[in-house]
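Internal tracking record. Fields below are filled automatically when a chain is submitted to the structure queue. Please do not edit lines marked as system-generated. If the sequence contains nonstandard residues, flag them in the REMARKS field before resubmitting.
Queue: standard
Priority: normal
Entity type: single polypeptide chain
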Amino acid sequence: TVNIVNGEFAYLYNTKESLSGDYKLNVDARDGFGNNMLFENALEFTLINELSVYAELNKKSVLPGSLVEITGGSNTILQEDTLEGSVKISLDGKDYTSDFRYGRFNYQLKIPEDIKSGEHDIYLKVIDLYGNRGETAKNIEIIPLPSRIEFELSSKSVNPGDKVSVTPLLFDQA
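SYSTEM-GENERATED OUTPUT FOLLOWS
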């Protein structure tokens, strides 16, 4: 309940815990003389809880154990910077968290020493103080780092003059 003064009123509602979707506002106005008027659908609006997330990596290809700088940010649907919140960074099932302020974040991600070589996705999920959310993904290539070499012979025992094939097996960090 709010008071109407000179035909005007103000009502504030915190939408932090509200679900996104379409809303319609009904106003039931009553005066001191017993007059009553219901204004149905006096205001209609859509509540959107989606954030736009963007991110860049300072390197596209890295060796295991390297540091990758992830910079980025998030905006509202109206392209306004989000004020504060957190960002969850996921790589191969391992999660890392960081905060962001004024719509920007920066994180130094240490690539695990035992990560498999090849293409990997880094997932970023952002949530602001109001519960708005967004996500994006960036791709990174892990360069193989040779760790050992083994040789495989075609036969365990040979006679003089027999041919023997040797196959080298090169293993990387994973």
